Amino acid sequence: MKKLYIIWLLLGFVGSTFAQTITVKDAETNEPIELVTLSSPHSKQYATTNAKGQADISAFKNEEKIEIRTLGYKTLIKSYNQLQAENFNVKLEVSNLNLDEVVISGSRWRQSSDDVPAKIISISTKDVALQNPQTAADLLGISGKVFIQKSQQGGGSPMIRGFSTSRLLYSVDGIRMNTAIFRSGNLQNVISLDPFAVENTEVVFGPGSVIYGSDAIGGVMSFQTLTPRLSLTDAPLITGKANVRYSSANNEKTGHFDVNVGFKKWSFLTSISSFDYDNLRQGSHGPEDYIRDYHVQRQDSTDVIITQEDKLLQIPTAYSQVNMMQKFRFKPNEKWDFQYGFHYSETSNYGRYDRHQRVKNGTARYAEWDYGPQIWMMNNLSIGYNESNSIFDQMNIRLAHQWFEESRKDRSFNKPDRNINEEEVSAYSINADFIKATGERNTIFYGLEYVLDEVNSVGKVTDITTDKTVPGPARYPNSTWQSLAAYITDEFKVTDRFTLSGGARYNHVLLDSEFDTTFYPFPFTEASLSNGALTGSLGGVYRPTNTWVLSANLGTAFRAPNVDDVGKVFDSAPGQVVVPNPDLKPEYAYNADLGVAKVFGDVLKIDVTGYYTHLKNSLLRRDFKLNGQDSIMYQGEMSRVQAIQNSAVANIYGVQFGLELKLPKGFGFSTDFNFQKGKEELENGKKSPVRHTAPFFGISRLNYKAQKLNMEVNLLFNGNRDFDDMPDGERTKTEIYALDANGNIYSPAWYTLNFKGLYKLSETLDVSGGIENLTDQRYRPYASGVSGAGRNFILGLTAHF
User: Fold this and answer.
1) Are 328 and 710 contacting, i.e. CB atoms less than 8 angstroms apart?
2) Residue 138 is assigned to a structural domain of this protein
3) Could you tell me if 625 and 764 lie in one domain?
4) CA-based Rg of the chain, rounded to a whole angstrom?
5) What span, in angstroms and rounded, lies between the C-alpha atoms of 409 and 110?
6) Residue 758 has pLDDT above 90, yes or no
7) What is the maximum alpha-carbon separation in the chain?
8) Which residues contact 67 (CB under 8 A, 6 or more apart)?
């Protein structure tokens, strides 16, 4: 015990240095600003302010250029001596027209967007506080630049630049969230994240495979959760917030609490959230095809069709969720920074609403079709080291273990057998990232990565009349999926106004699967894939003046076949069954971006990005034969055999347009438009629209900001998609689309008019809320199986301390 005490005392003195604290406040309100980033382009030092607007900048001593920036404020550049002369007190002026900001997702390190040729957007905690998104999927949607598809209320599948699901990569605190069973169809894993516990969200548009590896074809969604803050004085730093919220459209009852306790070297952060959602009510005005005014109940050992009193309720869509996060941080000196994070998320069972809409022989196809509890757990240890040597200036090592658990349960109408599939994935990863300045104008980012996924899949069949359970067919083969990679990126400032960057990554992916032939006579019992891929990028950012930004980027990306591609068995549509195909190769993407942004007189900002992507060896579901047969019996129904195959080439192009206008007396206007088109080859040589290219969509906002008040009226809109413009695979899904005059499916255009507001009642208490879908439209986003909320009243209270 005495030895432990001596070690503790020694740690308290290790690296002790003179701390210099800077305080950053709003120039107009004089309130402290949290999450302001202070960075030095020369030494690559950085610091962020805490809830009191304070940061330790001892490491910046003698720096000639310290950049001080955060979203919504004008960037300020000062030397250390200038800050010292001003007693280390800084005032930032409000500006909604920034052309630069600090981003992390481009390289895993903090960079100015001046130096990143890819298009990256940030969604701040201020945006989240005003908009009140219910899930992390909704959080992405409030940007107006990411399209969200939903098959059930407990879901949300982002669609970016014509790509979705396993062709997009999710990153949480720098850790890859994608697993070997991320599927090509729509998935809802993003809802495992807690919007209240997210400190900053960044979306990288276009290929990100050089930094993130397989799956980062269409883009990367990077979530940074709350970071434990250290105290800069002898007194403990205790901060946090408590939230409660109610929404009328689904009778939402949400509560959240987080607290940070920080000392000089140690800090602890705890976050807990509880979400409870009833069945979702859709709007009154819209296509009658979206109304299903009945649901199935089990009564006296019989499935009964119940006619609903409220035909606008979508039953079953109710679900609940709990999120917990615990973080610890230890920073013994300026060199070392240790952070450990524990994340846990669990949902209740929730109905897949689009499957409940299916009809067979004039009645409900299913009595049950539910996802079981979706569980996500992550243990993450980050080790940061900051001292220049011959190999690196900074190092960050991330070790993580994630546990994923999900299941599916379905039972046909008035049939006793409940089919159950349960999947568990244990994912291990280690990332080592380094940064090295090799001169005043050149910086190298490089790193190594290893990922191991172990997949365990079980099938069961339960007779609900006898409660007897017997083994059934599993959805996946038991498998291991491994990825080994090394990457390097070079950033070179050709001049003060032109930055050139390029990089390369080699990734090798190994997959081993064992198939159970008990229930299906597969002509194979195992599959082994070994695929290597070299990807690269080259781009530049040019600023002819302080009000112009021109960027261009060329990049390649790839996606290696995973367990879902190679080995799953499931019914993709009525009368169709997907079977394994072990003969798959990676798909490759080639992308070009060109962006222009311009500020006119600090009043108007226009931002336009055009892109083109060519996808080769695309993995798509096509007709197939199993043991020479084109149809097999699946769950009592003769079904056409299909499989994932490398059988197509796709071309996708589009434009993202943004406009911001600063109006007098605190008013402002902004709008975002997104246009994308894509074609892919079919087996017969014809071409079909790419499934995940969303119709024209966007958002327009009129906002007003005063000292204590922030209000916004916005118009969210989505274009029409006619039958002739529907992807070939969507044309049979009559249960989720509206029907035109010819009886063909189509996705109607829609809009919602929304009002949001936030008012600071005091220094510690905020009230927020609004009315969504004021005109009570009945709408359904493209490819979605559930309608959006009708008129929805939201009320939230937040207490800060």
Assistant:
1) no
2) no
3) yes
4) 27
5) 44
6) yes
7) 85
8) 37, 38, 39, 40, 41, 75, 76, 77, 112
Q: How far apart are CA 603 and CA 510, in angstroms?
A: 53
Domain contains 101: no
Question: What is the number of alpha carbons within 13 Å of residue 619 lying toward its C-beta?
Answer: 30
What would the pLDDT profile of 683-742 be if each residue is shown by its tens digit? 677 889 999 999 999 999 999 999 899 999 999 999 999 999 999 889 989 999 999 999
pTM of the full structure: 0.93
Residue 61 belongs to a domain with what CATH number? 2.60.40.1120
Q: Identify the H or E element spanning 529.
A: strand 526-542
Tens digit of each residue's pLDDT (9 = 90 or more) over 216-225: 999 999 999 9
Question: 386: domain CATH number?
Answer: 2.40.170.20
Task: Say which residues have a Cβ less than 8 Å from residue 555's Cβ, sequence separation at least 6.
Answer: 118, 206, 207, 209, 210, 535, 536, 537, 538, 539, 590, 591, 593
- 191-215 tens-digit pLDDT: 999 999 999 999 999 999 999 999 9
Which residues, 6+ apart, have CB-to-CB distance to 102 below 8 Å? Answer: 37, 39, 46, 69, 70, 110, 111, 112, 113
How far is the CA of 402 from the CAs of 165, 481, 485, 561, in angstroms? 19, 14, 19, 20
φ and ψ of 364, to 5 deg: -60, 135
Kindly report the average pLDDT of the chain as a whole number: 92
- Distance, CA of 149 to CA of 168 (rounded, Å): 14
Q: Which token pair is 158?
A: 């982002």
3-state secondary structure of 225: strand
Residue 631: per-residue pLDDT: 82
Segments forming the whole domain that contains residue 595: 224-800
Asked whether residue 699 is domain-assigned, the answer is yes
Q: Tell me, what amino acid is at 625?
A: K
**3-class secondary structure, 465:** coil
Cβ atoms of residues 694 and 706 within 8 Å: no
- Specify the DSSP element, H or E, that contains 799: strand 792-800
C-beta separation of 130 from 705 below 8 A: no
Contacts of 627 (CB under 8 A, 6+ apart): 521, 523
What are the residues whose beta carbons fall under 8 Å from the beta carbon of 638, sequence distance 6 or more?
575, 631, 632
Residue 34 per-residue DSSP state? T
Q: Mind spelling out the 3-state secondary structure of 776-798?
A: CECCCCCCCCCCCCCCEEEEEEE
Token pair for residue 82? 């200038």
Q: How many independent structural domains does the chain possess? A: 2
> For residues 137 and 142, what is the distance between their CA atoms, to the nearest angstrom?
9
44, 75, 95 — which closes off a domain? 95
Q: Considering the domain boundaries, does residue 665 fall inside one?
A: yes
Q: Where are the beta strands (DSSP E) in 663-744?
A: 667-681, 687-689, 697-705, 709-718, 738-739
Which residue among 95, 127, 159 closes a domain?
Answer: 95
Residue type, 385: Y
